[in-house]
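Structure, all two chains, one model.
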Amino acid sequence: MNAPAELVRQHLIDPEICIRCNTCEETCPKHAITHDSRNYVVMFEVCENCKACISPCPTGAIDSYRRVDKSRPHSIEEQFSWDSLPQETGPDAAQTPEIPEEVTRITEIATAGQGGPALPPWSAAHPYVGLFTLARPATASVTGNHRLTAEDASSAVHHIVLDFGQTAFPVLEGQSLGIIPPGQDSFGCPHHVRLYSVASPRNGERPGYNNVALTVKRVLADHEGHPVRGVCSNYVCDLKKGDKVQIVGPYGTSFLMPNHPGSSIMMICTGTGSAPMRAMTERRRRRIALKEGGELALFFGARVPAELPYFGPLMKLPRDFIDTNLAFSRVSGQPKRYVQDVLRECAEKVAAMLRDENCYIYICGLKGMEAGVNEAFAEVCRAHGMDWDTVLGGLKQTSRYHVETY
Amino acid sequence: MSINYSERIPNNVNLASNKTLQRALEHWQPAFQEWWKEMGPENSTALDVYLRTAVSVAPDGWAHYDYVRMPDYRWGIFLTPAEAGRQVNFGAHKGNAAWQEVPGEYRSTLRRIIVTQGDTEPASVEQQRHLGLTCPSLYDLRNIFQVNVEEGRHLWAMVYLLHAYFGRDGREEAEALLERRSGDSDNPRILSAFNEKTPDWLSFFMFTFITDRDGKFQLAALAESGFDPLSRTCRFMLTEEAHHLFVGESGISRIIQRTCEMMNQHKTDVPAKLRALGVIDLPTIQKYLNFHFSVTSDLYGNEVSSNAASFYTNGLKGRFEETKLAGDHKLDSVEYPVMEVVGDNIVTKPVSALTALNERLRDDWVKDVNAGVSRWNKVPEKAGIPFRFKLPHKGFNRRIGAFTEHHISPEGQVLSEATWTHQHQQWLPIEEDQAYMRSLMGRVTEPGKYANWIAVPARGISNQPVNFEYVRFG
């Protein structure tokens, strides 16, 4: 097998939008931009991706990129001949991705609830997998890190933004990436990779930027409550702006959103399990104007509102865009409510969505929620003349049921 | 080089160190605000607009986007940083250090140049002041407001030069800039194109595409000036001007796209049918192009001009991209071709390149406009529609220069008075066309909605989506 092509993001100018005003050429401190009587173009070998040209461009044409094989970028002669930008080309499909053993192991555990890795929805976009490996990781820079949960909340959840610069790291909603914490463990071995679901949509945390967001909880105790300082989560939560992070991935070929118009999404999550849900919701929000139809229903559990990541922005989304149902289990003076309780309360809607073949179901969060959610589905089915086991079988067969729990 | 926004007049010229100048400008400021209130965009005082404001003159600072309440926009004085050791780069003084003060012998000429440029800035705001009431979308409303506030800032730029370098005369001229009114028969704006009406959005887009492009070439020629403060002022204005050209070029392109879509959908190119479908037929767009092109062409003045020659020889106004041009930069032994009408023919004759500088700048502009028109033509080409837009002949419909006394067809034939009278309605917008345009002008203010006659833009502003709430109604 050939060595995998190294993909990079080549900076280009969209000739259909550019007005040839010369602002970029004037601005570029590296003289990486030139023109002929037809087009303005960027010299791949000269451009350092400093972004000085981006905001002065009056049209946005300058903010264009294509993934290319680093050894075969688009030459300026090629760019001079364009009337429009070329289609995005992917890595060679024949290449078998290199998936580290521990990633396979984690994936098996996470997807046990759906019977192991499954097929994605039929209309999911094609995911890229394993482009960056332990031997050849990508380097990203931290461009943001802020705490999402209240200072006095019992858990610290951070929103981290990573920028890939010129490196192409294509990622879809529902996919994850691996972070390699620096240093070695007590046995003198490099630390294991930790996987994090991407919390931003495919075109970036900020639209058009080559960045991703992660939702990371600082681990200070294990599942049984014994104090344990999570190596990677503490590393990530302590990252500062400008820090460089070693990344592998992307991973995940199953937990992907449907893209066909009219498709609905039911999202059930707790805590940082909200990351892929945020990515999917944001993807849909950015496409509201296209009026593609389909419903979004969110069932989101946390201990108290202050511990619910993205609580503020979530509450601002219009009701006709997303049906948000929250469950809090530790609000003083109120009975404990879990996501399964809310699913029961919304039985009518849940039953209709289970029946709707255009509705896809996603469950993400702690392993503990799975049993409760299963029971709630079974109960809703019984009340509506359906058999959950039969329904679940159908859901799995049509790739409508996706679970990632840990 | 950040800009101090806590000062009454944001600036990067260390205004606080010159108290007399600061007081004079602070005295002019309320008059400007009064003018904006009276002649600026109608009904805009309560709007929050997603605007670009300069926070520094560095690349990452002058395009800072945020919501701004329109009357609170901070008009300021921004100059491109000085270039160490800059020289006069052309004319008789070539090689001398660039002037930091006005040379006494050129004082009145320079003042006239600055006043003429300055007068166009408030003029276009006045011409466009009603258009917000008929915007085709929030995106377009935001764009016209951006153009308007920056024209206001360009006025500030010229007024700064008048106040800082021309004493009492300069202050009086600065006041007069706020007193003239576009289209006013008693006290009109200086240049005729700036007294025309901009009654609808097709005219507005044509104006920003064609007439603001004249602005680009005039500013570029002044950016070459040996008078360094004028050069630095114009260089920063040019960075802002590019957006105005974009608004025009993309606006017309979106209109063409929408019309082509309807032509294909309904399999028709009949203007009456397309008008019944509520879009602007391509021949009407061509007529508006002919009109704006010819009227703007007049702004360059006479083909042969001794004034233009002396501006150049004296180092006040250069050619487009003077410093990038090869050659002697004195032009005393070079020729340049200009056209004139001889009998029934248009002939080209060589004249001294020095006296032909107006024509040369006009030709540079024509080339630039033409490149934009050929980009528009990609739209019908892509849609499989044979129509192509074409610039009329330079002599078509002119009021200034060698063609003033003649009638020239768009193809460049010299016509008799009778033929012109008979045919000109095919080439220029007539009352019926204007009435149709007026009938289309509704007002669309719902985020993400666009009027029927214009396509959705390919990209939003500063990476925002096209359905972003670019303007918030207070």
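Chain A touches chain B through 30 residues (CB under 8 Å).
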